[in-house]
Amino acid sequence: MYPKIPLTVNGQNREIEADPEMPLLWALRDIMDIKGPKFGCGVAACGACTVLIDGEPVRSCSQPVGDVEGEITTIEGISQGNELHAVQQAWMKHSVPQCGYCQAGQIMAAVALLEEIPNPTDEDISDAMTNLCRCGTYPKIKAAIKDAAQTLGA
Amino acid sequence: MSRLGKCTRRAFLGLGVGAAGGLAVGYYFYQKPYANPLDANKAEGDTPFNPYVMISADNTITIIAPRAEMGQGTHTTLAALVAEELEVPLEQVVVEHGPSSPAYFNAAMFEESAPFPFYDEGVMAEIARGSMKIVAKFLGMNVTGGSSSMTDAFVKMREAGYTARFVLLKAAAEHFGTSEDNLTLADGTITDTTSGKTVTYGELASKAVNISPPTEMKLKKASDWKILGKSQKRVEIKDKVTGGRIFGIDVQLPDMRYGTVRMAPRKGVSLKSYDKTAALAIPGVTDVVEIRTIAGEGLGVVADNTWAAFKGAEVLEIEWDDPLSLQNTDQMWSALENALTQEATFELGGTGSDAEVYTSIPASEEVSAQYRVPFLAHATMEPMNATAQHDGSTIRIWTGTQAPGIVQTVVASHFDMDSADIDVTTTRLGGGFGRRLDADFALYASVIAEATAPHPVKVTWTREEDTQHDTYRPMAIGEFKGQVTPDGTLKTMDMHVASPSIIKSVMPRTFPAISPVGPDNTVLDGAYNQPLDVENQRCQAHVADLQVPVGFWRSVGNSINGFFHESFVDEAAHKAGKDPLEFRLAHMTSEEFLPAREALKRVAEMSGWGTPLPAGKGRGIAHVLSFGTWTAQVVQVDVTDDTVTIEEVWAVADPGIVLDPGMFKDQIMSGINFGLSQALGQEITWADGQVEQANFDSFDAMRMYQAPKITVELLENSPRMGGAGEPGTPPSTPALANAIFAATGKRIRQMPLSNEIDFI
Questions:
Q1: What is the mean pLDDT of residues B388-409?
Q2: CB of B223 closer than 8 Å to CB of B183
Q3: pLDDT score of A76
Q4: Partners of B63 in the β-ladder
Q5: Per CATH, the architecture of B329-376+472-759 is what?
Q6: Domain ranges within chain B, ordered by starting residue
Q7: What is the mean pLDDT of residues A79-104?
Q8: What pLDDT shows up at residue B159?
């Protein structure tokens, strides 16, 4: 009934049957059972669903799955085996998360930011980190990004 | 400052939960503990010692932290209470929320609900607090709210750890055939120092549990604490940096269906007719289900994925029957204005002065102001959701709830079942802020699950549905009047607050069988119970039903009255020609207000209060005592080109005892940003019987570029323990409004402040 859609997710080739209009977020969560990207708003306003497509941050709730071109990376795909990504480690070191619901999206946005700007200023961080956090963890997110920048630059 | 004179018996039965007849039940039943809920679920080799501690033969030590983890770090600090006495490091224990059981009642939340100021330790206040504790136990309120988890658990969970350690040591002495004096404990292992031999807790557990528990609790002194009082790593942190499947929305069950709801605009509006043809034509949509419940009416859509359910719900054609008279926000303001002209519904606190003093203030000495705040949504990051499975005789529910006991009661009552047949698994919560004290989302999922039976169904609300079907923070008007004498003394303060009653709204949704008695102190919290010496004080509530469901929103009445009260004190200081800090300190000379004075003095030092600032910048100060924590804040703003930047916030909080300084400071920071978010543009308004805001484009919150630098310090002067999750919120908004006044001379008395001045 639905067309087959080939996808590369976290380095694995997948093929799903879905309405091409279905947002990538729901294809990941409901069809592929990848639960790291979270649903927050459905209109690309909060960033809880942020994934990377070829390294670029994308709000997967507003990205039709049929239009995806490139490799998809979710939070499940950024650590190397048991070793967490430097951004995740910085998040742990600074005790960033509170409720934690937005943090997978925040971390993905931060990973993309540091790929693009290895040593971001406060202004760079404010410009790039537009994801919403209702627990208001922004000061800690900022500190953790700067810490991760140092680790990655070292 | 005595408030006892005005206390009637009706008043001390307390707010909402004065269970009819409940208080009369005998002492014996209250003393009798609930059965240990862990006994029912234990596996081979597991030994439950009490409702909080289970030790397995392989030495896995499980601590039950029966409160909702919604970001406040409660699982970590609750586990620390037990681990401290059990002599095991936090890294070595498994922390679980545990089953829904009345054994985990929260007495502290209801204790503080009694209508007395926190610092009032008079006989009547103590009796009232005690009564509320008994009520909480009878109702089995396994509730997370009121910033009460630590106050509630502080003794009982340390005792749980101590009793387990006590019998383990006795069992070890018997095992080694030596005296307890020769034994040492560390990391879940007991060593016989005479032989060097060791035995684990797990090896001793099945024997130890049969040893008589201690009759006397010899808890450690704070000076001997190894875990408590120090910052700990969150027990669930790894899940939260790896996208862990820990939230209600992540629940995945075999053969699960997906669903969503489209509910009537509010409770009281009914489902008249509908056409489901278009919805059923959406590929993937399999069913449309009628929902008629105590919380609201509407339709559920079932599909084979969430997105299809959303699309189906969107195209449903529904006609509602709306008999409600208040259809728009202007009518609601009028209703509140009208309530202010009527005799007060009740009053709390106050000095009992003759009414005449409030009407005979000389015009030259009068200061008066009217303040307003709108309805607010909670806007948790994780939209409301619940998964339910109905098998005819039992219903299983998986959801992020702050009140699993209320979910059981409400669902059982809908299906005319026994609460024991409703099984609730509490997941982690993607934000709560009070929204998840209601049970509507779990109730609707259960109704839909009856239609999908035997298949479970995960019901997820769209953001629009979530924003438009909240149980809102009430809108309110504060009419404040005072007398400032020529020497600069605030001699008289008359406070009138018009607002809907949260308790009156919540009780019929949650405990329909119990009628609320006594005053709903949440209407006046943050106004009647503040540490201020004023010769004549009166605080009256004018309750009006605005036909809108209202609920508990982080800091509840304090979020409203903190803004009113602390804005007014600032206005009075300016009327007196005094510095707002000095003015406050001059009106806080009572001995019991020492924590407030110290918090204010420290926050003034930290912020450089009184030192000159460049033109266009200003500082504002506020202090609110809420949930037992004395919290002072200074906000500094820059106003350039008529646009406000919130540059920096300094906060000092005094909860008496700090169990985890890192976690506590994080909560104050979070509470500040949650509070300031209101000022930046949050308001829920009504037009034609509908909420006008829908998603984050119309109901947003603070973003990174708006976030101020925040510095928090903690003090421990208070004689009693206070909470962490909410007290950061109330002082933030008045401190901001006061700072804008200091920078610009513009006094803004209505939230959101953004309606009168731009923010970056």
A1: 95
A2: no
A3: 98
A4: B53, B95
A5: 2-Layer Sandwich (3.30)
A6: 33-106+141-240, 248-323+384-460, 329-376+472-759
A7: 97
A8: 93
Q: What is the mean pLDDT of residues B20-46?
A: 57
What pLDDT, in 10s, does the model give residues B415-427? 999 999 999 999 9
- Extract the tokens encoding B549: 């469901």
* Cβ-Cβ contacts under 8 Å for B624 (sequence gap 6 or more): B526, B530, B558, B562, B565, B566, B631, B727, B730, B731, B734
Give me the mean pLDDT over the A105-133 stretch: 98
d(C-alpha B45, C-alpha B365), whole Å: 75
Query: What is the torsional sign of CA B91, B97, B103, B109?
Result: positive
Nearest residue, CB atoms, A101 vs list B258, B382, B700: B382
- What's the CATH number of domain B33-106+141-240, 3.30.365.10, 3.20.20.30, 3.30.450.180, 1.10.150.40? 3.30.365.10
Tell me if A139 and B242 make a contact (CB, 8 A cut-off): no
Written as one string, the DSSP assignment of B262-308 is EE-SSTT-EEEEEE-HHHHTSTTEEEEEEEE-SS-EEEEEEESSHHH
pLDDT (0 to 100) of residue B33: 59
Which CATH class, in words, describes the domain spanning A86-153? mainly alpha
- Inter-chain CB proximity A138 and B432 less than 8 Å: no
Q: What pLDDT does residue B30 have?
A: 42
**Domains B33-106+141-240 and B329-376+472-759 agree in fold:** yes
Percent of chain B with pLDDT over 70: 93
A74 CB neighbours in chain B (<8 A) are 243
Taking an 8 Å cut-off on Cβ atoms, the answer to whether A134 and B431 are in contact is yes
Domain B248-323+384-460 has CATH 3.30.365.10: yes
Q: Do the Cβ atoms of B463 and A98 come within 8 Å?
A: no
User: B466 pLDDT exceeds 70?
Assistant: yes
pLDDT at residue B14 greater than cutoff 60: no
Instruction: Nearest by CB to A126, from B233, B697, B704: name it.
Output: B704
Give the residue extent of every domain in chain A.
4-77, 86-153
Any idea which residue has 């307890």 for tokens? B180
- Would you place residue B8 in the very low, low, confident or very high pLDDT band (cuts 50, 70, 90)? very low
- The whole-angstrom distance between B401's CA and the closest CA on chain A is 13
The reported pLDDT for the residue numbered B127 is 61
Spell out the CATH class of A4-77. Answer: alpha beta
Helices vs strands, H then E, count in chain B: 21, 28
Q: Is the pLDDT of residue B134 over 70?
A: no
Q: Do A33 and B252 touch (CB under 8 A)?
A: yes
Q: How far is B445 from chain A (nearest CA, A)?
A: 18
The set of residues, in sequence order, having a beta carbon less than 8 Å from that of B4 and lying 6+ positions away, is: B122, B123, B124, B125
Closest approach of B379 to chain A, Cα-based (Å): 8
Of chain B, the percentage scoring pLDDT greater than 90 comes to 84
pLDDT in tens, B87-123: 999 999 999 988 888 888 888 877 777 777 777 777 6
